[in-house]
Amino acid sequence: MTTYDDRASLTDLTTTAERVRASVEGVIEGKPEVVRLSLTVLLAEGHLLIEDVPGVGKTMLAKALARSIDCSVRRIQFTPDLLPSDITGVSIYDQQRRDFEFKPGAIFAQIVIGDEINRASPKTQSALLESMEERQVTIDGQTYELPSPFMVVATQNPVEMEGTYPLPEAQRDRFMARVSIGYPSAEAELRMLDVHGGISPLDDLQPVAHAHDIVKLIDAVRVVHVAPSVQRYAVELVGATRTHPDLRLGASPRATLHLLRAAKASAALSGREYALPDDVQALAPAVLSHRLLPTAQAQLNRRTAEQVVLEILQRVPVPTGEAGQGAGHPAPGGRIYGQRPGGRRL
Do 275 and 234 meet the contact criterion of CB atoms below 8 Å apart? Predict the structure, then answer.
């Protein structure tokens, strides 16, 4: 079992995350919740899908997050003529050595920015499946491990349908969360004119964390405690999507795993060594909505997947006692929430 100084690790985590958050928010004006979700996905070892209308800063957010961390970054502009080998790499015959040499593709980076991912063909999109799930690439029977940390940040425009290929369900399920940036407030847009009016703020953006720091923080997030009642709550939320009459496709077991991983990262960012039902509730719309398919009748009634998730959150009972009373309050059976079995405080 992994042991470490919990409080010291959480202090390091929150300090480093605060530096990265401040760095990204210096570029993305007035969207602190979007920046926090991006950090949550990074520390939860997930991948992020940024979906919104053109011009609201989707690519800017991805670049700002990548440049705030001192790690390898590659950007892929998805186009209809992009080939799978452009992403994964290709084996080229070396005449001098009389052997094949592998040339790594753009996926061999710690943070990969996939711009307008839905403009590439399904064959090219599928080249990301193995790397996003198993963090490896198999070429000509040879498997190559990807670096750590590894995160794919993809963007797509939901309103430009001509010349695009909608992401298949298997591809969307690989993304831990989907976020929409939205239009800024009038005050944030005015500040943006001052900041972005001359030079791009990305030009002066310097790394505030190293890749090995992020790896340590990911290790700290892995051991954040999740009580059985919180785990059961996540399972019930995901299970409710599979039986809802307005959905023809519910969330997968991978969605449950992603929801709990994100809840653990969110708890750690809040300075807690244990996850609460509040963490699960706050992240459920971002983690579940993009995996759901509404029925034809629901679409006619203009019912969105986000609305269904919010309805499920209202319907599924929130755990009480062990999970609902909060840390430091006795739970049924004499345990205290936020306390590991055996009585040791986190």
Answer: no
Which DSSP symbol is given to 49? Answer: E
Helices (H), the chain: 6-25, 32-43, 58-67, 84-88, 122-125, 129-134, 169-172, 186-196, 211-222, 228-243, 253-269, 277-288, 296-300, 305-315
CA 124 – CA 120 distance, rounded (Å): 6
| Three-class DSSP category at 225 | strand
What is the rounded distance in angstroms from the CA atom of residue 55 to the CA atom of residue 189? 12
- Phi/psi at 185 (5° precision): -70, 165
Instruction: Encode the chain (346 residues) as per-residue pLDDT tens digits.
Output: 444 455 556 787 888 889 999 999 888 878 889 999 999 999 999 999 988 877 777 888 888 888 899 888 888 999 889 999 999 998 888 888 888 888 899 999 999 988 889 888 888 888 888 899 899 998 888 889 999 899 999 988 776 666 677 888 888 999 999 998 888 778 877 877 776 666 777 777 888 998 888 998 999 899 999 999 999 999 999 999 999 999 999 999 999 999 999 999 999 999 899 999 999 999 999 999 999 999 999 999 999 999 999 999 999 999 885 544 444 333 333 333 444 334 333 3
Residue 290 CB partners (closer than 8 Å, separation 6+): 49, 51, 172, 175, 177, 178, 305
Contact of 29 with 192, CB cutoff 8 Å: yes
Model confidence, pTM: 0.85
Helix axes 277-288, 228-243, angle to 10 degrees: 30
Half-sphere exposure of 205 (CA within 13 A, CB side): 29
